[in-house]
Write a structure and sequence with these properties.
Blueprint: H1 3-20, H2 30-50, H3 53-87, H4 92-117, H5 122-126, E1 134-135, H6 153-166, E2 173-174, H7 177-205
Antiparallel strand pairs: 1-2
Helix pairs in contact: 1-2, 1-4, 2-3, 3-4, 3-7, 4-6, 4-7, 6-7
Length: 206
Amino acid sequence: MTTSSRLGVTLILLSVVAMDSLSRYRLAPSWTAETIFAVGVVAMLLAAVMRTEFWHRAELLALWTIAVAGLLYNAANLCNTINILAYHVVEPATLFYTGVTIWVNNVLTFTLLYWLMDRGGPDARANNRAYPDFDFPAMSDPERVRPNWQPSLVDYLFIGFTTSTAFSPTEAQPLTARAKLLMIVQSAISLATIAIVAARAVNIIQ
């Protein structure tokens, strides 16, 4: 894993922590996200310094655990927010900010998942050791990109963002069942957040 990739992942984890601090209907205390962020950063630092197979595997395991836990936690926060919305009187501003944090964390969490999953992860992609989970246009048009082009974290961020906004593939097309299932889950969380939480907050304000 390159230094730029680790820096990008650190920024994603830091953004998740920052967004989680804005939510008022989260299930876990605020220090939970901060602890997870610290674990991820420490794992990447150790892998970068030690440069052994053991620490490399530990780094990937830590990031996979964080990504999956983040997905489950964000989905649970959405369910909890909908439950509060159904049975309690809520402040529209608080509800709106909570909806925004769930939506943004949905984008960031799936960005990390796609990046870790596609073709076995960043290292496997660099060595072309597996079939792709996503078909990027640049992969079939080598004359328009640099030699040996590989998708970066930003490319997966674009997939995560467009899936949450358009509820469907836009640039890269999913090729495998696991990629399609993840995109279905992401679109469902995003749709529920926008249609139920954000829409209700706007309705209360009006």
